[in-house]
Amino acid sequence: MTIDKDNHNRFICTKCGGEMEEGFLPVASRGMIDVTKWIRGKPEPHWLGGVKAPEQKFMGGLKDSKACISVCSYRCQLCGFLESYAR
């Protein structure tokens, strides 16, 4: 993704040159919708099924908040290409 030099609020698709629009990839959790997160490290199997983060405490959150970052995604309005960034 590149930034339009004339308009810094406009992002251009590197695949086809179309305009990118910001969005997010939702995750359903406890009956609510949340934003996808990037978590440092390799996922580990959880004994109840699914996966857990390597730094996750039992029945708690992550020890290091810097290890869990919200993911922002951009979608090309022409070709549908998705590009995601953890910030």
- Please count the helical segments: 0
Low-confidence stretches: none
Computed over alpha carbons, the radius of gyration is 17 Å
Q: Determine the structural class based on helices, strands and strand pairing.
A: mainly beta
Q: What is the residue-mean pLDDT, rounded to a whole number? A: 82
Percent strand = 35-45%
Count of the separate structural domains = 1
End-to-end Cα distance, whole Å, is 15 Å
Largest beta-sheet characterization: 6 strands, antiparallel
Extended strand count: 10
Helix and strand element order? EEEEEEEEEE
Secondary structure: helix percent: under 10%
Shape: elongated
Concise account of the structure shown:
With 87 residues, the protein is mainly β.
Please, could you describe this protein's structure?
With 87 residues, this protein is mainly beta. It has one domain. It has strands spanning 2-3, 11-12, 19-23, 26-29, 32-35, 37-39, 44-45, 51-52, 68-76, 82-86. The strands form three sheets. Strands 1, 2, 3, 6, 9 and 10 form a six-stranded antiparallel sheet that branches. A two-stranded antiparallel sheet has the order 4-5. A hairpin with a 5-residue loop joins strand 7 (44-45) and strand 8 (51-52). The two termini are 15 Å apart.
For the structure shown, list the relevant keywords.
single chain; about 90 residues; mainly beta; 6-stranded antiparallel β-sheet; about 45% strand
